């Protein structure tokens, strides 16, 4: 099942069209995707059992780029991000592979819809295509083997970064440098975990103004999604709606010679196989 936040309403996205969850369930489920995620098993059962009519004939592809789409989760309790989690990206940065996941946060006020504008705060603003995990359960102490059972699903994300602020000081300012306004778009919708049996077998691409800079597979991750979820859950309690940005493959702007940073007018298109496409315009 694919579920979007369309103009603030939880909306199931099918190949035949859109289904407004609250309307079609006569209010049994909330208009809020955040709340639907807490009852995802019930929602999936209802969706698969009921013979639902679409409430809008818009198809998934027609929904790409739609400015009405909001963030998948509006108010996550926690947002995690993983640094240096792709082998080729670590080589490009000339850094040794980490021995355990290296975690920072992107603060919640940086979340935005998948197609919202990106105000560029500096001349060292960079792009990073990322697979984003959305948690579906309260969980602690997950083993790698059962970690994915606590995942609600997956979406496409961008981890926009101001490299100057990110690298400032010692220790550096990773979290702040990645939390400017609209630095954390997610979307276009949540694809539930039952449809993605292996999140480490997805293609991931990013282009800027028509030039492809990132083109990789999530199989290049140093730590798999299951390993990241397990690692985090053995320190903190994971909660429904928590987001995990799982790192970016090689090819982001500061890895280019000369660096290719973002400037107003750039169009950043990020796509992950089976999860869809998001588009930001830099302003
Ligand atoms: Zn990143």
Task: Describe it.
With 283 residues, this protein is an alpha+beta fold. The protein has 2 domains: 2-63, no CATH class; 79-281, Fumarylacetoacetase-like, C-terminal domain (Fumarylacetoacetate hydrolase, domain 2), CATH 3.90.850. It is built from 8 helices and 16 strands. The chain has helices at 21-24, 33-38, 40-49, 60-63, 87-92, 163-166, 174-177, 225-233; strands at 2-6, 9-14, 17-20, 79-83, 102-104, 111-112, 125-126, 129-135, 151-158, 161-162, 184-192, 203-208, 211-217, 243-245, 267-272, 276-281. The strands form 3 sheets. Strands 1, 2, 3, 4, 5, 6, 8, 9, 11 and 14 form a 10-stranded mixed β-sheet that branches. Strand 1 (2-6) and strand 2 (9-14) form a beta hairpin. Residues 81, 128, 130, 159, 245, 247-248 line the site of zinc ion.
């Amino acid at each position: 099942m694919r579920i979007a936040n369309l103009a603030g309403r939880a909306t199931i996205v099918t190949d035949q069209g859109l289904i407004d969850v609250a309307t079609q369930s006569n209010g049994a489920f909330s208009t809020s995707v955040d709340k639907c995620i807490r009852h995802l098993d019930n929602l999936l059962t209802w969706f698969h059992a009921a013979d639902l009519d679409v409430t809008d004939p818009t198809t998934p592809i027609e929904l790409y780029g739609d400015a009405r789409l909001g963030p998948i989760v509006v108010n996550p309790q926690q947002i995690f991000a993983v640094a240096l989690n792709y082998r080729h990206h670590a080589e490009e940065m000339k850094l040794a592979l980490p021995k355990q996941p290296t975690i920072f946060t992107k603060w919640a006020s940086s979340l935005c819809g998948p197609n919202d504008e990106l105000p560029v705060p500096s001349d060292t603003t960079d792009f990073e295509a990322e697979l984003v995990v959305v948690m579906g359960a309260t969980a602690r102490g997950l083993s790698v083997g059962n970690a994915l059972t606590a995942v609600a699903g997956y979406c496409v994300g961008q981890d926009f970064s101001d490299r100057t602020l990110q690298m400032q000081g010692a220790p550096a300012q990773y979290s702040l440098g990645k939390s400017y306004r609209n630095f954390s778009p997610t979307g276009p919708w949540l694809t539930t975990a039952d449809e993605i049996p292996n999140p480490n077998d997805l293609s991931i691409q990013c282009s800027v103004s028509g030039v492809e800079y990132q083109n990789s597979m999530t199989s290049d991750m140093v730590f798999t999604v299951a390993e990241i979820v397990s690692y985090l859950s053995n320190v903190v309690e994971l909660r429904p709606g928590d987001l995990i940005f799982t790192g970016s493959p090689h090819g982001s702007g500061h890895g280019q010679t000369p660096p290719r940073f973002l400037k107003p007018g750039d169009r950043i298109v990020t796509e992950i196989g089976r999860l869809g496409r998001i588009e930001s315009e830099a302003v």
